[in-house]
Amino acid sequence: AERTRDEVELPPPAIDNRLTVHPLWPEIDRISTEQIQAAFEEVGGENGWQLFAEEGDMRMYRREVEVDGMVMDPLKAMHKVRGVSAREMCHYFFNPRYRYEWETTLETMTIVEQVSRDALVFHQTFKRIWPASQRDALFWSHVRASHANTYAVTNHSTTNPDYPPNAGACIRLFVTVCLACRSSWPAGEQPTRDNITTSIAYCSTVNPGGWAPAGVLRAVYKREYPKFLKRFTSYVVDQCRGKPLAI
Ligand code: 6CM
């Protein structure tokens, strides 16, 4: 059967061999495994997680953490989306082809290294937030199939001599992000667009890398994270409409 361009680019069901021989592999494997496990842990009211945004099935929690006056609040969000699979969600989050269409804080994106089908290294600059300096980030991104019906993308800061930090106008920020998605459908049925539901856990910790006013930063996060998750999930639903379901 003829395969469409989209199908061959979907996240592979097993780790790409080219990734496992790359120098970044041990770190990518360890951090991805840790992040995926943590993503599915319940937050509840314990451990200092406070709910700061709630809309429909979406819930967002944060823990207030400051190190030397710099905001490093870990964020955790849960959401449920009908009509798309975990694999499709992760495809649109991982693949740079779609990023400008859903990522509103982005100014520029460069692919620094194409490691494999399931791992890339990115340099990104973000829109400047007054009165702070503009930020950039250099991070690897890895998509993988995990437990049953589960796919996840993990992004984590890295270094590269061609992209030294704090060299130009930007301050380098450090990020660890995980988007973990799990699909389910009624027992005994085949999954379809009409019966599939995907649970999403999104975790993010950003170290701003240099001074930024705490109040401004928290206000930006409070506004931008719910906006991102709502926009991204509805973008994926729109993109998948009329296409065959990819499990
Ligand atoms: O996870 C998200 N996007 C991914 C693809 O771009 C990737 C991005 C990680 C960077 C997250 C940095 C957020 C900071 C944005 C504000 C700009 C910094 C200003 C600092 C001023 C002191 O994982 C979605 C990220 C959604 C962020 C709201």
Question: How would you explain this protein's 3D organization?
Answer:
β8 and β9 form a beta hairpin. The radius of gyration is 18 Å and the shape is globular. It is built from 6 helices and 12 strands. Helix content is 26%, strand content 34%. The strands form 2 sheets. Strands 1, 2, 5, 6, 7, 8, 9, 10, 11 and 12 form a 10-stranded mixed β-sheet that branches. The protein has a two-stranded antiparallel sheet with strand order 3-4. The protein has a single domain, classed as START domain (Alpha-D-Glucose-1,6-Bisphosphate, Chain A, domain 4). It has 247 residues and is of the alpha+beta class. α4 crosses α6.
Short description:
The protein has 247 residues and is an alpha+beta fold.
Beta-strand content estimate: 25-35%
Tell me, what's the shape? Answer: globular
Q: How many individual domains?
A: 1
CATH class: Alpha Beta
What's the helical proportion of residues?
A: 25-40%
Using the CA coordinates, give the radius of gyration.
Answer: 18 Å
Ends: how far apart? 17 Å
Just name the CATH architecture: 2-Layer Sandwich
**Strand count:** 12
The number of helices is 6
How does the major sheet shape up? 10 strands, mixed
- The CATH topology annotation reads as Alpha-D-Glucose-1,6-Bisphosphate, Chain A, domain 4
Order of helices and strands: HHHEEEEEHHEEEEEEEH
What is the mean predicted local confidence, pLDDT?
Answer: 95
User: Which regions have little confidence, pLDDT < 50, spanning 5+ residues?
Assistant: none
**What is the CATH homology-level superfamily?**
START domain
